[in-house]
Amino acid sequence: MLALDGSMGEGGGQILRTALALSLVLQRPFEITRLRAARRRPGLRRQHLACVLAAGEIGAARMEGARLGSQALSFAPSAVRHGPFRFDIGTAGSTTLVLQTVLPALLYADGPSEVTVTGGTHNPLAPPFEFLDRAYLPLLRRMGAAVQAELVHPGYVPRGGGEVRLRVEPKGRLIPLTLDARGEPRLRRATATVAGLPRHIAERELAVVASRLGWPPECLSVREQVPKLGPGNVLTLELGFDQVTEVFTGFGQRGVPAEAVAEGAVSEAREYLDADVAVGPHLADQLLLPLALGRGGGFTTVRPTPHTHSNWAVIRLFTGLSLEQAPMAAGAWRLRVQP
Length: 339
Prior knowledge:
Elements: E1 2-5, H1 13-26, E2 30-33, H2 46-58, E3 62-64, E4 72-76, E5 84-88, H3 95-106, E6 113-119, H4 129-142, E7 146-153, E8 162-169, E9 177-179, E10 185-195, H5 199-213, E11 220-225, E12 232-241, E13 245-251, H6 258-275, H7 281-294, E14 297-302, H8 306-319, E15 322-327, E16 332-338
Parallel strand pairs: 1-2, 5-6, 9-14, 10-11
Antiparallel strand pairs: 2-4, 3-4, 6-8, 7-8, 10-12, 12-13, 14-16, 15-16
Helix pairs in contact: 1-2, 1-3, 1-8, 2-3, 5-6, 7-8
C-alpha cells in the first residue's frame, strides 16, 4: 500500500483528490496521513469527504477514516464501476472538484456513466463550471475522451444547491497532448452574472474589463439569473485561441466592491496574455494528471505554482513518471511529461 504524507508541498486537498483519481485508475491502494495539514482547519471537510465517498462508490473501495475531520485515510479500490451516480456535497463545496476526482477512472470503465453532483458550481476556491466546460474538457476530448458537462442550475457560496451533470463514454487510453503555443486569437468574451443581486454590479464589473483590457461592447454581456437558494455574482473572462481556450474568473463576495472583483480576474488574464504561453496556472495544474495517463505531452505556462508541484509529487509516486521543467523567456516555462 502506497503511503502518502498529506502535508507535503502546499498540503491541501489536491493531494487527496489526485491520489483518489490515480488509485482508481491504477487499482493501487494508498494510505494518507496528516490530511490537509497546512490548512487552518485540517482534515476532511465536506467537499473532501464528498470526493472520498464518490471515489469509494465508483471504485467499490474498502475505506478507513472516511469521516468529517479525519486526518488519516486508507483507500483500497477493487473495481471501477460505471452507470448512473448521484452525489450531494451538502454544502457549497465544489462540484467540479468532485467530478474531476472520478472522471479519470470513468474514462477507463467498462461502460458509459452519468454523474450528477449537487453543491457549489461557482466556488472561489475551485474551478467554476465554465472552466471545466470550456477550458479543461475540450482538451481532454482532443486526447481521445468522450465527455460532456451540463450545468443544470448554478449554486453559489454560501448556500450551494447547484447541480452539474457529467456524461462519460469510455474510449480507451488517452493519447499525449502537446501545447507549445496557443495560436491565433479567436474569441474574447466577458460575462458578468448576477443572481438575485442588482444589475449595476455586473455593469460595473464589465466597465473595468472594457477599460483595462480594451474590449469593445460586443464582447461584454450581463446575465441575470433567479437564484435557487441564494444570491451570487461571478465574472467570467473567456479567451479563445486556435489551440486552447482559457477562462479567468472573479467571484463576488460580501464587502468586496464590484471593481475589485473585476480587477482580480483582469489581472490574471493580463498576466497570461503577457507571458505568451499556451495555458495559465490553473489549467496547467489540471492537465498534469491526464497527461500522465497519456504517458506523454506537455505545454508552456507561467511559473509553476506550489499547487502544481504538490500535484506532480503525487503523480510521480503513483506512476514513476518524470516532469521536465524548463524556464523560458519572460517568466514562461515549458513542462514535459517523460516516461
